[in-house]
Amino acid sequence: MPDVNGFSSADYKVTGGKLLRVRLRTVPDAQGEPCIAAVSITGDFFMHPEEALEALEAALPGVPLRADVLRERIAPFFAGEVQVIGADVEDFVQLLLAAKP
Amino acid sequence: MTQRWRLLLHGARNAFDNMAIDEAILRTVAVGDVPATLRFYTWEPSAVSIGYFQGVEQEVDLAACRREGVDVIRRITGGGAVFHDREGEITYSLMLQGNAPGVPQNVLDSYGVFCQGLVLGLRRLGLEATFAPINDIAVNGRKISGNAQTRRFGGVLQHGTVLCDVNPALMFTLLKVPDAKLRDKLLQTVAERVTSIRRELGAVDPQAVIEALCAGFAAALDAEFIPGVLTEQEAQLAQQIKGERYARREWLFKR
After folding, report:
1. What confidence score (pLDDT) does residue B218 get?
2. Is B49 on the interface with A (CB under 8 A)?
3. Which residue of chain B comes nearest to A22, CA vs CA?
4. Do B178 and A41 touch (CB under 8 A)?
5. SS3 B214
6. A2 occurs within a structural domain
7. What percentage of chain B exceeds 70 in pLDDT?
């Protein structure tokens, strides 16, 4: 259930112990499908460089809360120079889906 | 070839000075103005530190911290929330250049290299310490040390704690638990999953712990530690970083 500000939250426990948490707000697109309007991801994972998380959050608004699209959008952030420790692409996808209002 | 490192024995400082000093050393080491550095310190007053990506209000009972006189600070390193009891732990930090020989570029691999110093050090004290990936050290299957790393400014910083004594009841007064109904279970879990030097050995001699850890890091990193002091440049930089970052409400409430 979204809170008074329209944000819904979810926690997602990664196998192995790390806890990912999300707060997000959605708006329906033309087809009525919920799309991310604002999102904040927190947790006890590691990401190097750390600023990659802010870049990821900035890339999510407008994306529908659907596994295939989320996967496609998130995967590039975990490629290349960025090292994420304690969670992988699929964990972030499942985290966001868990907050679907 | 054995590398000469600087050793800083800093004793007790508050959370804001401690985190600002680690970052100031990291930046100064990274540009080559001072040698790679191993620092030991404690926290006065006690403090809760949260990981770079954590939400402060999600993790910390700020009113309880105020009541208990416990500082709250956000680290530049990821990982979880830690209660730094003023008498219950020894904290270390390692600062070195990003391209230093023997340091894996893969962060996960480098935890193994640095944590080996802790493993060897704790074994010198007679503890059956083992590396518990990703970033912990365990004794008899129970966590005794947690560690966190960042790579910024061209350098590597790893800091972590060795538990000397544990006070789970106070810890869970200060840290929020996901479900209050789980508090008793969590206290029990901590007793099962976390240990300390006192619990394992019956007594703690902080000086002996630091000496053992130095010897462990020396063996693991092929390093020789030369006692030194913070330079004037580092001290000034630390004050600046404290004011711009760690002492700021915006930094604490960033997430």
Report:
1. 97
2. no
3. B55
4. no
5. helix
6. no
7. 98
Q: What is the CATH number of the domain that holds A66?
A: 3.30.390.50
Contact of A46 with chain B, judged by CB distance below 8 Å, is answered with yes
Instruction: For residue B81, give the chain A residue with the closest CA.
Output: A44
Tokens of A26: 């959605």
What is the value of ipTM here, to two decimals? 0.92
Looking at the 3D structure of chain A, how many domains does it have? 1
User: Do residues B225 and B217 touch, judged by C-beta distance below 8 A?
Assistant: yes
What is the CB-side half-sphere exposure of residue A93 using CA atoms within 13 A? 16
Find the CB nearest A42 among B150, B151, B255: B255
Of residues B110 and A79, the one with the higher pLDDT is B110
Walk across the sheet containing B82-84 and list its strands.
B71-74, B47-50, B82-84
